[in-house]
# Entry
Amino acid sequence: MADDSVALLTGVPVRRGAMVFQAGPGDPLPRAGAGTAEAANKHGLIATLEGLAVVSDGKASVTSAEIHYGDIGMSQTLTGTGNVVVTGSIMRGAKVKANGSLVILGEVIMAQVEAMGSVVLRKGCMGASVTAGVNHHRYRLSLEQLQIVQASLQRLISIVEELKGHPSFRTLDLTKNLQPLLEVLAVRSFADFTVHVAEAVKRCQIHEYLAGNLTELTGLLRNRFTGFAFLTVTRDEVETALNLCGAAIQELESAGSADRDVFIVGGPAEDSVVKALGSVVLAGANLKRCRVEADKSVRVEGDVQGGTVRAGLSIAASRVTESAVLSVSGGGVIRVDGATSEVVAQVGHLTERLRAGAQATIIRQKGNALEVCPAGEVN
# Structure
């Protein structure tokens, strides 16, 4: 498991400069990993940044995060630009958003939490809305818009050269001569061009990864690519804008590939809506009357007590104790280790009902029908 994943699940919040590990007399120090350094007394490791500290495989590290100490009160809002850790609970009507991953050490009670990355609830949730990967659609829109800007800048290099070679360059009808560029941009003017970039920034809720490049790019376009200022634009300036745009696209693509899972540990999920663009895992926790949706997989190590669970690839439930609906896409697999109540199992458009008393069972599609067999007989 990656250091960041371990930190999200088990890490301890620390301030910058705090002791991460203190060695006893004669005890060896773990290796100093990211976010740590040897203490001045040589007997410990300190945090070089604020975040979640963990010692794993003989190495100490700190994953960067904004730490909010205490509860988020009723109807309050907290928005973080990167990873966010809340040491308390999220109370009724509150909203917490993170452009990175989000870790809640307390309970989430009738509140809304969402993150571009993963969400970890260490004491469960009740009546809550929990979403990992909430801004994926906006991320795609931003990426598409930046790619349009990039293509436009590439076209602009050749157009600027053509215009600069025209004998009556300063009296040209810019709108007419720049029509090929404007058609690529699908906008009416260079003012709209900068709006296009601004919209990319606005829609991209993970802009902390891109702020430097996009801020510089937007400023350059606004100051040099609008009105009469455009008449003196140089090829170097166009290439600078193109490089900034390329760097922003690269960072956005990297950020968009981050994990987007939900982990609920140490407490149940009750009467809640849980969604993830990755997977949902309830580690030793019960799932009570919830609606769960995951693009990849769902694993419930506790009891499923009613509700609906939908996944793209697979569902694994240790036990179903109240009637529930488990659904995966065609080609997916459902595993139920035991059921004391009826289970409606759906694979694609096919449905099978498991009666109360069913033992470890695998349900999967085979041809145009569902195959239901004991888990031990599956190859």
Remarks:
- The first helix runs from residue 3 to 10.
- Helices lie at 3-10, 136-164, 174-177, 179-185, 190-203, 211-224, 235-256.
